[in-house]
Amino acid sequence: MIFLLVMSFNLLGDGVRDLLDPRLKSGVLLRAQAVTAVDRSHIPAARHSDKALLEVVDLQVNFRSGAHVSAAVKNISFYVAQGECLG
Fold first, then answer.
1. CA 11 to CA 13: how far, in whole Å?
2. What is the pLDDT of residues 5-33, one digit of tens each?
3. Domain ranges for the chain
4. pTM of the full predicted structure?
5. Which superkingdom heads the taxonomic lineage of this protein's source (predicted)?
């Protein structure tokens, strides 16, 4: 009996939340989607192509908040050779 009472309250609470939550439209929770802008207008040439298994040249990462852009990484280059680990 207690189990049925608890389950009934949970089901009622879920229904009220679904009814009143503005993020829910047609039963689907809407979340903000990630927006990624990729600029590949300039792709630099490899520098260590003979030794590198992975090479990153002039990496730049920016975060945008409205019209404001914050640079997180500017012009970072590295390579990982066989047998090396990164981290």
1. 5
2. 999 999 999 888 878 876 666 656 666 66
3. 1-31, 35-87
4. 0.49
5. Bacteria
